[in-house]
Amino acid sequence: MRSSGRTVTEVARELGVSSESLRGWVKKARAAQDTGSGPGSVRAGRAADDRDEELKRLRKLTAEQAKTIEILKKATAFFVKESDR
Predict the structure, then answer these.
(1) What pLDDT is stored for residue 59 in this prediction?
(2) Domain boundaries, the chain
(3) Which run of H or E residues covers position 81?
């Protein structure tokens, strides 16, 4: 196996599965990484970065809108007092 330096047969035996099953899973995982559809793929990393950027943008927008709402509440209270005079 790539990172452990052990053979597929050794890892399969340790996991209690057949070598052929493990080879098939490894092949599918590598193909998913190469096409950018697996969890460890470059595309998945970019998607996480995109989500982080979107979350940052939305939090900033929420803070701006909260400030706007607070200003409008104060303005409303001011104008209500003015109209009562």
Answers:
(1) 97
(2) 8-84
(3) helix 42-84
